Amino acid sequence: MNDSGNKAEVKVQILGEEYIIKGDKSSEYINNIASFLDDHLHKVKEYNSAISRFRIMILGAMNLTDKLHSVQSDYEELKEDYNQLKEEYKNLRDEYNILSEIVEKED
């Protein structure tokens, strides 16, 4: 949320058109997101210069959605790996404690 608690209202340029974006994030954050989107759409336009602005935006949205899904999938895999490692750690710690008790009893 921005510092004043009010919605930020920011003018941004995307594919050469000006938009007014209102949001709970800071002006800087909104500008960064808009700049990222604009850069991405310009790259899409470079590879598909003969298509309409609407199609460029749809292709850009599809590309970014694909990246988002890939990141979410990677995150879920990492979370599963983390949980598995955490369980292995717990088991090893328990085994260590048992072995430590055995060694102490033998001494």
UniProtKB/TrEMBL annotation:
It comes from Halobacteroides halobius (strain ATCC 35273 / DSM 5150 / MD-1). Residues 61-102 form a coiled coil. GO terms for cellular component: cell division site; cell septum; cytosol. Homodimer. Interacts with FtsZ. Keywords: Cell cycle, Cell division, Coiled coil, Cytoplasm, Septation. It holds the Pfam family ZapA. Gene3D superfamilies: 6.10.250.790. The keyword Coiled coil applies. SUPFAM superfamilies: Cell division protein ZapA-like. This is Cell division protein ZapA. GO terms for biological process: division septum assembly; FtsZ-dependent cytokinesis; septin ring assembly. It is found in: Cytoplasm. Activator of cell division through the inhibition of FtsZ GTPase activity, therefore promoting FtsZ assembly into bundles of protofilaments necessary for the formation of the division Z ring. It is recruited early at mid-cell but it is not essential for cell division. InterPro entries: Bac_CellDiv_Activator, Cell_div_ZapA-like, Cell_div_ZapA-like_sf.
